[in-house]
Amino acid sequence: MKLTLKIWRQANSKVKGKLFEYSISDVSPDMSFLEMMDVLNEELIQKGDDPIAFDHDCREGICGMCSMFINGQAHGPDRLVTTCQLHMRKFKDGDTITIEPFRANAFPVIKDLVVDRSSFERIQQAGGFISINTSGNTQDANSIPIEKNDADDAFDAATCIGCGACVASCKNASAMLFVSAKVSQYALLPQGKVEATNRVLNMVKQMDEEGFGNCTNTGACEVECPKGISLENIARMNREYLGASIKSK
After folding, report:
1. N or C: which terminus of the chain has fewer CB atoms within 10 Å of its end residue's CB?
2. pTM value > 0.85
């Protein structure tokens, strides 16, 4: 395939960026999207040009680092996959593909397609954990009875990889789906009940301080999420937050 790529180039968060146009040929439909980007970068390097910066690590759909906004969609036109799992067979010969970074005030651009998502890490640090005794007195998890539905829902919430597709897809750049998934995976399990009140209050507070927008229930976050995280988690987090707010007074 021969493609035209319009790619966002930006030196850092302090300067303005713009779209640059590149042509690439001999693209195999079996290439992953990142492999196609690798080929383009090899061509740029051979010409003595600066390669396009983009984030990646495992390339197995696990880490979420490969986040790109492709033709107006987080991770591209496929569903339930990350950018690294998107294959060029989803495009046609002669297509023009626009590639941008995830856009949100809380995700400042580091360079080109790479954004700083450390705001997610700070939300996790605010409450996305449980405090347990690890000095040899820990209780065997198998000895703690848990309803299967709760265990399944907790596992589904825990599949969130923190890629930020929910933020990039939301017109308000809301992080509610991410935060609610992290709240849910603990709120549903007995190990997470002890710190439940402080957890949800602290995580929501940190989310607001990071500058994420509010949720208006458009549902774009669930549609674009590569792990299919359900909006039910947002409803659960709202209930947890209301209960915690009453308890803390």
Report:
1. C
2. yes
Averaged pLDDT, 131-145: 78
Give the residue from 232, 102, 72 showing the smallest Cα distance to 165.
Answer: 102
Angle at Cα 86 formed by Cα 10 and Cα 50, nearest 5°? 30
Rounded Cα–Cα distance for residues 109 and 103 (Å):
8
Domain end residue (candidates: 89, 111, 133): 111
Q: Helix (H, G, I), strand (E, B), or coil: what is residue 70?
A: strand
Which residues form the domain of 137? 117-247
Domain final residue, candidates 111, 133, 165: 111
What single-letter amino acid sits at 118? S
- Number of domains present in the structure of the chain: 2
Q: Are residues 87 and 127 in the same domain?
A: no
User: For residue 12, what are the CA distances in angstroms to 44, 87, 100, 116?
Assistant: 20, 29, 14, 11
Same domain membership, residue 167 and residue 70: no
Give 151-203 pLDDT, tens digit per residue. 999 999 999 999 999 999 999 999 999 999 999 999 999 989 999 999 999 99
Distance CA 223, CA 122 (A): 25
Torsion over CA of 169, 175, 179 and 181, rounded to 10 degrees? -10
CB 244 within 8 A of CB 201: yes
Q: Are residues 59 and 169 in the same domain?
A: no
In whole angstroms, what separates CA 28 from the centre of its chain?
27
Asked if 15 and 74 count as a contact pair (C-beta separation under 8 A), the reply is no
